[in-house]
Amino acid sequence: MTDVSVKTQLADAMAQDFERDLSRDGVAPEKIEAQIKRSKNRIASAPVVILLCLDMSEMDSYPDEKRQNAERTMAMQSVAAAGLQLLLAAHAEGLGGVWVCSPLFAQETIQKSLKLPASWEPQGMFFVGYPDELPKSKTMKDLQSLIEWL
Q1: Which residues have C-beta within 8 Å of that of residue 125, sequence separation ≥ 6?
Q2: Whether pLDDT at 76 is above 90
Q3: Residue 27 CA to its chain's centroid (Å)
Q4: Residue 95 above 80 pLDDT?
Q5: Does 21 score more than 80 pLDDT?
Q6: What's the mean per-residue pLDDT of the chain?
């Protein structure tokens, strides 16, 4: 999505769900307002917003719950792998990208707002553009501390 009106419409629709959920959680009104403002700004101001969706309509179907759940997990992993590749490709082109999972909390709202097919389940959203500044490098854990050799 690059059209400001589409991004703003999406941000406004998602904000309604976000506000409802935060209110139910007992978050203070001023904190809710600040979080919603930040969320709406991130969506509307991003040069490009990419929505990743899961579509189970062409996946295999199984009569038992165990294999059907495995098929769904495999599909979700595929969406995540595609998202990672997209971020790597954007980085290779000098673009910055941020991955947010907020669509998981507003799937139906997003489907309605963007008039998506019912089988498209929003999973993640990327904000992509040329960075204003390069982020500072983070201290990473030592690789050996994360590996257990068996």
Answers
A1: 43, 49, 50, 51, 52, 99, 100, 101, 102, 103
A2: yes
A3: 23
A4: yes
A5: yes
A6: 95
On whether the CB atoms of residues 56 and 72 are closer than 8 A, the answer is yes
SS3 (DSSP) at 55:
strand
Distances from the Cα of 97 to the Cα of 48, 107, 120, 123, angstroms: 9, 21, 22, 16
Which residue from 5, 92, 71 is spatially nearest to 44, judged by alpha carbons?
5
Q: Kindly report the CA angle at 140 between 147 and 75, in degrees rounded to 5?
A: 65
pLDDT of residue 136: 83
Q: What is the C-alpha to C-alpha distance for residues 86 and 93, in angstroms, rounded to an integer?
A: 11
Structure tokens at 147: 């590996």
pLDDT of 82 strictly over 90: yes
Instruction: Evaluate if residue 132 carries a pLDDT over 90.
Output: no
**DSSP string covering 87-138, please?**
HHHHHHTT-EEEEE-GGGGSHHHHHHHHT--TTEEEEEEEEEE--SSPPPPP
Round to whole Å and give the CA distance between 42 and 48. 11
Q: Percentage of the chain surpassing pLDDT 70? A: 100
